[in-house]
Amino acid sequence: MADKSQTCSVWLGSETGILKGVSLSKKRAFNFCDMSSVSRDQEICALTWGDRQESEVLVGCVNGSVKTFSTEKGVFTETRVCGDISQGRFTGIAVTDRSLITCVESGLLKVWTEGSADTVEINVGGEVCRMRQNPSQRHRVATGGKENPLKVWDLERPDKPIFTAKNVANDWLDLRVPVWVRDVAFIPDSDRIVTCTGYHQVRVYDPSTPQRRPVLEAEFGEYPLTTLALPAGHDRVVVGNTHGQIAILDLRKGLVRGCMKGLAGSVRGLQCHPSSPLLASCGLDRFLRIHSLEDRSTVRLAPPILFSALLNVFFFSFLLKLVGSDAAGEVEEVKEEERDEVWDSMETVSEKGEKRTVEEEAEESRETAEKKEEKKKRKKAKK
Amino acid sequence: GREEKNTQAKSKCKGKKEKKKEKRAEEAEEKGPESESAETSSSTRPALPPTFSLSEIKNKQRRQLMFMKLKQEKRKQKLELRKKRRKEREALGDKAPPKEVPKTIENQRVYDETTVDPEDEEVAYDEGTDEFSAYFNKLINPKVLITTSDRPRGRTVRFCEQLATVIPNAHVYYRRGLALKRVIPQCISRDFTYLMVINEDRKVPNGMILCHLPDGPTAHFKVSSVRLRKEMKRRGKDPTEHYPEVILNNFTTRLGHSIGRLFAALFPHDPQFQGRQVATFHNQRDFIFFRFHRYIFRNEKKVGIQELGPRFTLKLRSLQKGTFDSKFGEYEWVHKRHEMDSNRRKFHL
C-alpha cells in the first residue's frame, strides 16, 4: 500500500467515499479506503494537502469528519469530527502552520488549532459554495456562495472581512444582477482574486484598489461554471461548466482563448500543474483526463482513466513530476525545497498595497480619516 | 478530340448494341498505344483501369448502359468466385477452414472502456446505494405520472393513453401550461416515483423527459418512429392489467447500466407471469427500441408472440443528476454531436 501511495501523483475523491490515487507513470489507479466503512455519507467533498511536504492528505467527508491520510504509509491515520451533516457539506479545507480551517455550506468557518480545544468561529454568511486559502498568505481565506458575495477574511482578525465585493451595477433593464459565486482563486504574486459564478460569468477583483466592483468581467457559455484553475503565468484562467465544457479565458481582455474537448459530464475538478503546461480535469462522467494547455489536446501520456464512481474533487501532487514515456516507472522528485529557498532568498518587491501589515492598514485608515476631515473642513469653508 | 466527336455523332443514329460496340472500340483505340498487353488479357475490356471513368461519359443513356454492364459483370464475377469457393470447401470437407464472419458495425465497435465488468465490486457498491436502490430492494412500488408538453395534439394524446396501459400504475394528466419545476414538488408530495413528459412537435411526439422523483436522475430522450396500436399489423388484443416482465438488452457500459436501471424502475419489481406480457428495451447502436409483446409457449421449443401496444425508439440526449433543472443542473452525460458522432463505430450506451 505504501509504495502505491508514494507513486500517486493525482489524488481524487469520489462520491462513494473512496479516496483514489492515480499513478500517471504507471497509468494505474488505486483505491485507498477501508472497505468496511464505505458508505454514501462518507462522500468526499474536500481534499487538501496536510502540509507543505505533501506527505498527508486531508479528506473532508459529508458527515462532517476530516480524515488524514498519509501518503508515505498509505493508510488513514486520523479522523476528526469537525461538524455534522446538518450544517452542510464542506466547501473548503485549508491548513496553516498549526491549525486547520474548515468551512461548511451553512456559512460556519472554523479554525481548529492543534493542541487547544477552542476554535475561532466566523459566520461567513448564507449558503457558501467555496472557501479558498491564499497560497502565499496562508492566513487569508476567501469565501463566496449563492447570494453571498466574495469576502476575503483575515483569520487573525476574524470579526470583519478585509474585503467584501460589491455587486455589479444593475443591468440594462435596471434589475439587480443575482450573485452566485461558485469558485474562487487567488492569482499568485498579486492581490487579485478571480471568481466564477453560476450565471456563467468570470470576474476579477482587486482588493488593493478602492474599487469594490470587479475589475474585469467575462462571460462564457450558457451554463453555470463550476470550477476554475489558474495555469502558470498570470494572464489566463481555465473554467469548466456543468455541461462539460472547459475553456481557457484570457484575463487581460476577457476573451475566450480556446476550449478543451472530451468531457461529457459536469466538470467537478480542474487543476493545473505548476511547472508543466498540463491541466487535469475530472467530472461526473467518471473520467480523469489530462489536457495539454499548449495545444489543447488530450495528452497521450495519460489517456482518460475511468473510475467507477462519480468524482468530486482532486488535485495534483506538485512534488511528483509528471514523467514522459521515456522514464519507465521512475518518478523524479523535483527539488521543491531548493526552489522554496530560492524564492525566499529573493527580495520581496513591495508594491502599493501588496503586503498589508497591520501598521499599514492603520495608516491607511488614518489617512482616510484625515481625508474625510479635510473634506469636512473644505465644505465648512465653502459654506 | 475531333475524331471522338465525329464518331459520337455517327453513333447517335445507331442502335444500342452498336453503340456499345463502338464504345468498346473507342476505348480500345484510346488504350491501344498505352497498353497492348492489357488488350490481349481481356477481349472485351482492358484490364488496366481506364483513365476515364464512367462518370465522364456525357450521354446519359450510354452512361447508364455502361454502368449496367459493369454491374452485371461484377455480379457474374462474384457468383463465379462464390461457386469456386463452395467447390473448394466441399472438396476439403472436414479440413475446410471455418467460415469467415462478416464485419458488421456491431462487430467493429470500438471497445468502450466504460464497459462494466460483472464482477466489479465498486460498481456493484455504487449501484447498491444509488437513487434506485430503494426500488431495487423492493421497498417502493413505482407510480408514474405521464404528461405532455402544452396543448398536445391527437397523436400524442393517444400515445400517452397507450403508454398508460402498458406501464402499470401510471396516470395521465393534462399539462395545462404548468412549469415542470413546480410540478415536481407536488408529485413528490403525492408519492409519485417517476415523471414522464412527452414532448410534442408538429403534432407528433418527438421527445421524452424521464425524471426519477425523489431526487433522482433525469434523462432526456429523442423519440422517433412512434407506432400506435391502430397502425400495427397482426397485433393482439389490448394489454391487460397484469404487470409485465421487463427485458433489457445490451446495456453494457456504465452509462448504459444507469439508463437500464432507470427503465427497470418504471415497472413493478414482481412481474405477473400469468399475464404473459413482456416489455422489451433493446439497445443497439445507441438507439433503444421499445416493444411490448404477449407470448405463449406452445410446447417446449416453440413460442408464439403477438405484438401489442405502442412501439417507439429512443435516443439518449442527456442524463442530468438531480430532478429536472435544465439551466442550473449538473449533467452526468451530455450528447455532444461533433465529438461523439465523429466515429461510426463508437457507441456510448
Automatic annotation (TrEMBL), chain A:
Residues 374-383 have a biased composition (Basic residues). SMART domains: WD40. CDD domains: WDR74. GO terms for cellular component: nucleolus; preribosome, large subunit precursor. It comes from the Eukaryota. InterPro entries: WD40/YVTN_repeat-like_dom_sf, WD40_repeat_dom_sf, WD40_rpt, WDR74/Nsa1. Residues 334-344 have a biased composition (Acidic residues). Residues 349-373 have a biased composition (Basic and acidic residues). GO terms for biological process: ribosomal large subunit biogenesis; RNA metabolic process. It is found in: Nucleus, Nucleolus. Residues 334-383 are annotated as: Disordered. SUPFAM superfamilies: WD40 repeat-like. Keywords: Methylation, Nucleus, Phosphoprotein, Repeat, WD repeat. It holds the Pfam family WD40. Isoform 1 interacts (through WDR repeats) with NVL; the interaction is independent of RNA or pre-60S ribosome particles. Isoform 2 does not interact with NVL. Interacts with MTREX; the interaction dissociation in a late stage of rRNA synthesis is required for appropriate maturation of pre-60S particles and depends on the ATPase activity of NVL. This is WD repeat-containing protein 74. It comes from Pygocentrus nattereri. The gene is WDR74.
UniProtKB/TrEMBL annotation, chain B:
Its main location: nucleus. Residues 23-34, 88-101 have a biased composition (Basic and acidic residues). Gene3D superfamilies: Probable brix-domain ribosomal biogenesis protein. Residues 142-325 form the Brix domain. Pfam families: Brix. One of its GO terms (biological process) is maturation of 5.8S rRNA. Residues 11-22, 72-87 have a biased composition (Basic residues). One of its GO terms (cellular component) is preribosome, large subunit precursor. InterPro entries: Brix (IPR007109), IMP4/RPF1 (IPR044281). This is Ribosome production factor 1. It comes from Pygocentrus nattereri (Red-bellied piranha).
